Amino acid sequence: MSRALDGTDWRILSELQEDGRLSFNQLGRKVNLSAPAVADRVRRLEEAGVIAGYQARIDATRAGLPLTAFIKLRCSPGRCLLTTTASDEYPEVVEIHKLSGSSCTLLRVRAASMPHLEEIFERIGRHGEIDTQIVLSTQYEGRPVAEPPAHTRSAQPSPGWSRAAPARPGEPS
Amino acid sequence: MSRALDGTDWRILSELQEDGRLSFNQLGRKVNLSAPAVADRVRRLEEAGVIAGYQARIDATRAGLPLTAFIKLRCSPGRCLLTTTASDEYPEVVEIHKLSGSSCTLLRVRAASMPHLEEIFERIGRHGEIDTQIVLSTQYEGRPVAEPPAHTRSAQPSPGWSRAAPARPGEPS
DNA sequence: CTTGAAAGAAAGGGCCG
DNA sequence: CGGCCCTTTCTTTCAAG
């Protein structure tokens, strides 16, 4: 089982979240380690699934998808989006979260235009009762996950919360 | 002024969102182009800001931050989180969105434990009225932004909303 | 945009502090 | 575990068709 991350690991994670294309040489320079040493640590982090992958960060607005909205969806039983293949049928859905409380899921969608967004709402609305919220602007997104204060590490909820998900594109927990 | 993205650009974006460390050679093979050709396109996409950067995708659960929550925050005027430096004071805040509607902002936070989460709620609650929602599980996150259906590009809401993707009906993808 | 070649850099292995 | 050396491999970049 994987040991807890030390400070160097967090520095590595921080750097790689800012620039995922850093070479082991550059990375080693930033964290005061030699290239083989950081290569070892990075490999360990990858094998442990802490680093789930590397991806280009896309500016959706500049890519022609300037609109973002959150959709709370209370599913009709059996027609929940979660159980369907949201991948191909709903390319506009960028995130799916299962929430506590009354609503089944929280979706995040990207749209090219208001008519497009409207059409998405209608399409998703067929799956249940929806509550939509349009994003006016976004200050942060994909902000680097940082090391939490030390005192917060106690009292872990329980192992087993994370369903041993495959560390694959589109799903870090 | 940047021209609209064509199908090949979208394929490149798709591949780079799945694996941001692809070499131009590998990438070229995937999109049926030579290395120099895709290097050119990628460079153009980077300069246009469509590709905003590259980053390692972290599995926050495996990194010791298994809890996610959304916080709707209605700011007290002048004490809005948006205007403060959320960077250093709130390392747990991963996203900040300004929303339409009554609530000022939507925050997304990562926490190591329930006490930690509780403490975050209390800390952020000082800035205004909050409405919290804990995420039970996440199906997708950071799902690749995909090319929208062609018909959605028409009828932009109003000029000035997006200075990218001049959309005309019947435009080839 | 493609092919081809050259220069440069990076990754992996082995050994020692 | 980390640092240093080496060798091999790959990527990048330039040139020309």
Automatic annotation (TrEMBL), chains A, B:
Give the HTH asnC-type domain ranges.
5-66
Q: Which SUPFAM superfamilies match?
A: Dimeric alpha+beta barrel (SSF54909), Winged helix' DNA-binding domain (SSF46785)
Specify the superkingdom. Answer: Bacteria
Indicate whether DNA-binding appears among the record's keywords: yes
List, alphabetically, the InterPro entries matched: ArsR-like_HTH (IPR011991), AsnC-type_HTH_dom (IPR000485), Dimeric_a/b-barrel (IPR011008), Tscrpt_reg_AsnC-like (IPR019888), Tscrpt_reg_AsnC/Lrp_C (IPR019887), Tscrpt_reg_HTH_AsnC-type_CS (IPR019885), WH-like_DNA-bd_sf (IPR036388), WH_DNA-bd_sf (IPR036390)
The positions making up the signal sequence are none
UniProt keyword annotation of DNA-binding present: yes
Task: Write one Pfam family the protein is assigned to.
Answer: HTH_24
Keywords assigned by UniProt, alphabetized: DNA-binding, Transcription, Transcription regulation
The name of this protein is Lrp/AsnC family transcriptional regulator
- Per the UniProt record, the source organism is Cellulomonas fengjieae
